[in-house]
Design a protein that fits this description.
The structure holds 2 protein chains of 2 kinds. Chain A is built from 17 helices and 10 strands. By secondary structure, chain A is of the alpha/beta class. In chain A, α5 packs antiparallel against α15, α7 packs across α17 and α9 crosses α11. The N and C termini of chain A lie far apart (67 Å). The N terminus of chain A is likely disordered. By secondary structure, chain B is an all-alpha fold. Helix content of chain B is 78%, strand content 0%. The radius of gyration of chain B is 23 Å and the shape is globular. Classes of the chains: A alpha/beta, B mainly alpha. At the A-B interface, α6, β7 and α17 of A face α3 and α11 of B.
Chain lengths: 377, 280
């Protein structure tokens, strides 16, 4: 039997592809697809990959994808000549883990959350942040971790539609649980994150004591019980866009939603049909994590993270999509009319509490179980 | 070359399909069984956790209840549709069958989204009712079990209609004609002559709808408002949100076993082979 495949021709096509990839004429995805089609990806191995410089940053898609590309990535390419591409397919912790464990890592940098970054670190699928390249002092307190670093800041805030509430709107979480004066549907997240805090505050606990109150089983049960009381008035949101839709469709009058979505809604809802208060909000940082064995290498990624710390860029980021700067040095640069929408402005930080990851690492899974039970049972 | 026996030839035909089944189905399923007892710790911890959890119990009950109601709804509506198609209007039969098949080919996601448009607070149904001044405040038609059921019955209906239709088309009209000729009323002829002959179709439709509904994900996730959490959504939740692959796997094993039990119980009361494979 003779061999019918012309390996030399294939190797030549592969060489061309590698060349084009290096020149930036072919994306990494296109390159991998081409190699796969030729059936020679395994033969090439990681050697060709290591020679190429393109950083793939993954976030959660939507508008944020294009803006991240424009504000952070294209500016980096302009400075260094290194191509950075944003992929909006959503780097859930499950996907990152699956990718690393199957040995087929395509992502270099992922927009994760504080809780996920801790779980991923424990699972051993992320790399430590190199703080000799990334500057710790350019990150808000509470957003610096071994295997993750603050990228931007968002909050869980109290949003409402006064039009559906007869011109009224709740000012505090206590009001949210007051169905008599504020009738209508509420929306909460399909997870305890940022939600238990509001339920605890609704019982009159001072913001600074929230996690202490949630420190005991009774405290958690009491907070969960608040949701059971409100159950008939709750619709749950799973994704940010879902929470946005619930307001746009006027399905809900009140909600505990992300400040980034509130930022979009303020422009989409008609005048007088949308308000937000940061009072009793929970500030959570977006966290960069770097998957183990990322194709472009550790150092390249760290340099990009350091670039994204530039205060001016972070202000642009806030203006475009409502993500507050993680770099405290950016706050004074924010234009006056944007200040009140900035989750990390000094005034807003004063009325909010910081998301507590150690609490979540310890209690989240057990609390989720009780939360689901309260909502469905 | 020695002559192959019939049996060997038969096996050679089956072998490729069997190999594909083993590699792409049996092995992954075994992998799931393995994860459920090895992660995070070796042993049956996940199963213990599962049986202790109130939320899991509620979710299982909910799943079976929704599946059962969906099945009943699909059978009632589907029987009428199948009966009409097979017994009346022979000229428009192809059109009627097409009308059953067309939605069947549209993505479940799109069909579920359409229900959101229809059932929303300011959706078509509520707006119409308000314009007719039948209601003053919008009805809550979705983000609850009602919305899930309406949409699931719609999505599952073809799975009930098609087996029943195939069955009814095989029934010769001469039996009912004979009954009528012997003096039976229309209703008696239907009840004691026609209906018993359609039972195999009804059973296979019921089984198909029920088993598919047990593992259904999209519609409850979209229209349930988070409070109609069926077991498959619960599994996604465990795996995507908490990386609790062990518990997620244990839940899916439980769902698989529950489905198998349904089939076993069904097999006691009916001939599965004739209900699912035979076309009269």
């Amino acid at each position: 039997m003779t061999e019918t495949t012309d390996f030399e021709a294939k190797a030549d096509i592969a060489d061309i592809a590698v060349e084009r990839y290096k020149q930036g004429l072919l994306t990494r995805r296109g390159f991998i697809a081409a190699m796969g089609a030729l059936g020679i990806l395994p033969a090439l191995g990681t050697k060709a990959m290591a020679n190429t410089k393109e950083i793939i940053v993954v976030n959660w898609g939507g508008q944020a994808k294009d803006i991240l590309q424009e504000v952070m990535c294209d500016t980096y390419t302009k400075e260094t000549g290194i191509k950075v591409t944003v992929d909006g397919s959503g780097p859930s912790a499950g996907k990152i883990r699956a990718m690393v464990e199957s040995g087929a890592v395509v992502w270099d940098l992922c927009d994760s959350g504080a809780g996920s970054s801790l779980i991923l670190e424990k699972a051993g699928v992320t790399q430590p942040i190199d703080y000799s390249i990334v500057d710790k002092s350019k990150v808000l307190d509470g957003a610096v971790y071994n295997n993750g670093v603050g990228n931007y800041v968002y909050s869980y805030v109290l949003a409402s539609n006064p039009k559906l509430l007869g011109g009224n709107s709740p000012k505090s979480w206590e009001d949210v649980w007051n169905v008599k004066d504020f009738p209508g549907m509420r929306t909460f997240r399909k997870s305890v994150r940022g939600m238990l805090e509001s339920a605890t505050m609704s019982m009159g606990v001072a913001p600074k004591d929230v996690y202490e109150a949630l420190g005991t089983d009774d405290g958690i049960k009491a907070a969960i019980d608040r949701f059971r009381q409100l159950r008939e008035n709750i619709i749950v949101w799973g994704s940010g866009s879902e929470s946005q839709n619930l307001f746009l469709q006027e399905e809900v009058a009140i909600g505990n939603i992300w400040s980034t979505r509130a930022h979009l809604l303020k422009d989409q809802m008609e005048e007088g049909a949308f308000t937000v208060t940061f009072n009793g909000g929970v500030v959570a940082p977006g966290i960069w994590v770097v998957p183990k064995d990322n194709p472009v290498g550790t150092e390249e990624v760290m340099k990009f993270i350091a670039h994204a710390q530039t205060p001016e860029l972070q202000v642009k980021w806030l203006e475009a999509i409502g993500c507050g700067p993680a770099n405290p040095a950016a706050a004074p640069l924010v234009p006056a009319e944007m200040q009140k929408w900035n989750p990390s402005s000094p005034e807003n930080l004063a009325t909010q509490i910081m998301y507590n990851d150690t609490w979540y690492a310890k209690n989240q899974i057990a609390a989720e179980e009780l939360y689901v039970d309260a909502l469905i049972n | 070359m020695p002559r192959l026996t019939d049996k060997a030839r038969y096996w050679m035909l089956v072998l490729p399909a069997l190999a594909i089944m083993i590699v792409f189905y049996i092995l992954p399923v075994l992998g799931i069984w393995e994860i459920s007892v090895t992660e995070p710790d070796l042993g049956f911890g996940n199963y213990v956790k599962m049986t202790e959890s109130n939320a899991v119990k509620t979710s299982f009950i909910l799943t079976f209840r929704v599946a059962a109601i969906t099945t009943v709804g699909c059978l009632l509506l589907g029987y009428i549709v199948a009966y009409t198609i097979s017994n009346f209007a022979s000229r428009v039969t192809p059109l009627m069958v097409a009308l059953v098949l067309l939605p069947f080919w549209v993505s479940v996601l799109i069909r579920s989204f359409s229900w959101i448009v229809l059932l929303g607070r300011s959706g078509l149904v509520n707006d119409t009712l308000r314009d007719l001044e039948l209601i003053t405040r919008p009805l809550r038609l979705m983000h609850n079990e009602f919305g899930v059921l309406v949409s699931m019955i719609h999505v599952m209906l073809p799975f009930a209609v098609l087996p029943m239709l195939a069955n009814m088309r095989g029934i010769s009209p001469s039996y009912t004609d004979a009954a009528r000729g012997l003096g039976a009323s229309e209703w008696t002829a239907f009840r004691s002559v026609y209906f018993p002959q359609t039972l195999p179709g009804v059973f296979s439709g019921a089984l198909l709808v029920f088993v598919l509904s047990l593992g259904f994900f999209v519609t409850p996730a979209l229209l349930g408002g988070g409070r109609v959490l069926m077991i498959s959504e619960y599994i996604t939740y465990q795996i995507q949100e908490f990386l609790a692959w062990g518990l997620g796997s244990a839940l899916s094993v439980a769902l698989l076993v529950a489905t198998a039990l349904v089939l076993l119980v069904a097999a006691r009361f009916m001939n599965l082979k004739s209900a699912l494979l035979d076309r009269h």
